[in-house]
Prior knowledge:
Oligomer: single chain
Number of strands: 0
Number of domains: 1
Order of helices and strands: HHHH
CATH topology: Monooxygenase
Shape: elongated
Structural class: mainly alpha
Strand content: under 5%
Amino acid sequence: MYSLTFADALGYAAAACTTLSFVPQVVRTWRTRSARDLSYGMLAVYALGISLWLAYGVAILSWPLIASNGVTIALVIVLLALKIRFDLDARGAASASPR
Length: 99
C-alpha cells in the first residue's frame, strides 16, 4: 500500500501549480487563434526540459514528477501544434490578400 509522504504531497502541490500555470497560455492561444508571440525556440527548449524532467521522474520513480511532466509535455505539444497551424493559416491569408 502506498502512503503519501509530506515530500510527495509537496511535490504534487508544486507540480499542480507549474502544470496548471501553462493551461491559460494554451487556452489563450486557442481563443485568439494566434501564437505569434511564442517562439519556436522557447517551445523547443521548454519541451526538451520537460522531457528530461519526465525521464528523471521515471528513472527515480517519482510519481509527482511523472504525472506533472507527462501532462505538461502534452500541453506543450498542443501549443506547438496550434502555433504551427495558426502560423500556416496567417501565411496563407497574407499571401492570398491583394497587394
